[in-house]
Prior knowledge:
The complex is a heterodimer of chains A (290) and B (252). In chain A, strand 4 and strand 5 form a beta hairpin. Chain A has helices spanning 3-9, 58-65, 88-95, 113-122, 131-144, 160-172, 190-207, 218-226, 271-276, 280-283, and strands at residues 20-29, 32-42, 47-52, 73-78, 81-82, 99-101, 178-182, 210-215, 227-230, 235-238, 255-261, 264-269. Chain A has a single domain (3-98, 176-283), classed as P-loop containing nucleotide triphosphate hydrolases (Rossmann fold, 3-Layer(aba) Sandwich). Chain A contains 10 helices and 12 strands. Chain A starts with a helix and ends in a 7-residue tail after the last helix. With 290 residues, chain A is α/β, with parallel strands linked by helices. In chain A, helix 4 (113-122) crosses helix 5 (131-144), helix 5 (131-144) crosses helix 6 (160-172) and helix 6 packs parallel to helix 7. Chain B is mainly α. Chain B has one domain (32-251). Chain B has helices at 6-26, 33-71, 79-117, 120-126, 131-168, 174-184, 187-213, 218-251. At the A-B interface, helix 3 of A face helix 4 of B.
Amino acid sequence: MSAPSTVMSAPSKPGAENLLRFENVSLHFDDIVALQDVSFELHPGETRVVLGAAGSGKTTLLKTAIGLLKPNSGRVFLFGSDITDMRENRLFDLRSQAGVLFQEGGLFDSLTVAENVAYPLVNRRNRTIPMEEVDAKVVEALRFVELEHTLEQYPSELSGGMRRRVGIARAVVSEPPMVLYDSPTAGLDPITANTIMALVAKERDSQNTANLIVTQRYQDGQLMANFRYNRSSGHLEPVSKNGVGDHDGSNPTRTIFMVMKDGRLVFEGAQAELEASQDPYISKFVPKHS
Amino acid sequence: MLDFLKPPVAAFQDFYILVGRALVNVFRSPHYSDDIMIQMDIIGVGSLPIVVLTGFFSGVVITMQMSRALNQYGAVGQVGQIVAITLVRELGPVLTALLVAGRNASGIASELGSMKVTEQIDAMRALGTDPIQKLVTPRMIATAVMLPMLTIIADFVGIFGGYIIAYFTLALPSSQYWTTAYQALEYNDVVQGLLKPFVFAFVVSLVGCFFGLRTAGGTQGVGRATTQAVVVASVWVFVLTSLLTRIFVNLQ
């Protein structure tokens, strides 16, 4: 029984081999198959965009990744620790090291925006951050999403896009090495959706975080794959093909697309491969003109 | 063949798991004392007006009804005794618990239910907080502290309501009413009258939390959870008061 001690150490360093690993994970609710034999890895600095129709198991995949749902078979590793059979009590500490944005933001209605963003820092079980520092970090995170003027407002007073932005601020306030986004642009107009994705890219490139983005919109993945946030200019810029990336320099943003169908992972690869796919289901996600 | 029994048995099992975890969390850090205070304010102070009103009018009607019955035996002077015993032993705890069930079990179920359907519970778990420790245990502790206090207030206000009727319409001397009321109460009655709300508090709060946390099916589910919480909590209050009364009657 020496394994648990290594499990609890939860290496969250960027140098860890992988931040998230699925090994033949299957999950079903009664007779409904939500995940079927799913395997993949998420490495530091990598972005994975999971596309799929509604009900294809995207959200289930994300919830399984942080142990909110337990797989029926297969194994899930988070920050190098096997969380498949981990007790809920021990999972809390591990989960709090990952940032998560829920579909509708998942903000707490009864708390102000500032309290919501401070939540991961204040309510952490082994909190070490003094309150003055918490306030500074909250303001900084809200400034990052350009909402520092909403500190004392309640989530119900904000628009859908603003709630999503506060959700991003809360997900990244503790500077996690990995952020999971559940349909960050669902139900938003194209302009707001673009703003949200620009923030996701900005977070990735300013903090070098790994991302798992679950979405129905191909444009979200396209933006992540082809744009990079320039810290000096403060804008998103198209990436040049010879940037840092895969060995041949073909994927500078290290963005990998995954497509899910009925709980199965039916595609995994770079944007070019996705666009070249002849599979009728996969090609439905790629607009013909792109 | 016995498949139809599975859901209720599973629900009962889930409820006991929730009870166990909520109780264990009382002794485990972190303790959310701010949440406990907020809930004490909502459940205790918030319920005070309705508890006072109900307690007062219970005392009033008991006195009016009983005086008529006692009049047949020429024992109207003993009305204080009947009011005190009825309120302290039974009506005070049960009525207060039912009011808190209607007001707070429903409130808890709908609040937690809304949090469940809008993924706030999942968000809480994802952010590394135990929802039972953050949401259930503070509500349980707050109810366990406030319900006995509310019951004491309801008892007193009820006896006072009886006194108003006894003094003004039955023309009983104040000293007679208060002396008979006071002397009627034994140690056993007081213990029973305080133990009952303490037990009811756990049922009312935990049933509210249980139905709230298992809400499914959007806003319609929240409504269903709220109704179920009030009905189940109220039924359990009656079942438990019968059991506890039986135990205390045997003890005498």
